[in-house]
Amino acid sequence: MTPVFPTTYFGSIIYYQNLVRHAEVLIETKEHFPKQSYRNRCDILSADGLLSLSIPVKKPNGSKTPTDEVQLANNENWRARHWRAIKTAYQSAPYFDYYGIEVHDLIYRKDELLIDLNDAISSRIIDWLDLPVKTQHTKDFHPIQENDPREVLVDKNKNNAFEDSPYIQVFPSTQSFTPNISILDAVMCSGPLARNLLLPVK
User: What is the pLDDT of residues 103-132, one digit of tens each?
Assistant: First the structure.
């Protein structure tokens, strides 16, 4: 059975670690869009610590709105805020000059729907890191299973352990490493080598 994963906005390292365990996954598009998850937000590491970036969205049918109908709140200036935060956090990272312009262009896409923006971001990350996984959308809602990625990997309140060797971050914490943040952090700091954080050791 093909596993079902949630959509994410610059998903976490742990999200992509789990994604690449499968040759093909389905991205859930028919669930009722939940509040307070990483479907429309991500965490990056700034000089002041962890910084959460959240996309304001519109749900035409309220709590019954399926994910593939959730709209971006394009009347708000969230794109400028997110890009400014990402640039400030990573402009001194080794690979910012290589990936920064593409991240900028992704954020400033003219999408109307969250799912389209997230798909474009995920496809770019898969391409950047040459990840061996293909994604498709669900056609209908798949019931939630035990330890379902749609809950475990994007729930703000669940703490998922980082599963591989850390890398050098721009702003080390007092513990020297901040785990479980956006894949952007690894990409900006490690470039193509971020792939080694995701794929199982052979």
Answer: 999 999 999 999 999 999 999 999 999 999
For 8-77, what is the HEC assignment?
Answer: CCCCEHHHHHHHCCCCEEEECCCCECCCCECCCEEEEEECCEEEEEECCEECCCHHHCEHHHCEECCCCC
Quote the DSSP letter at residue 104: H
Give this prediction's pTM.
0.89
* pLDDT > 90? residue 146: no
In the chain, what are the domain boundaries?
Answer: 4-198
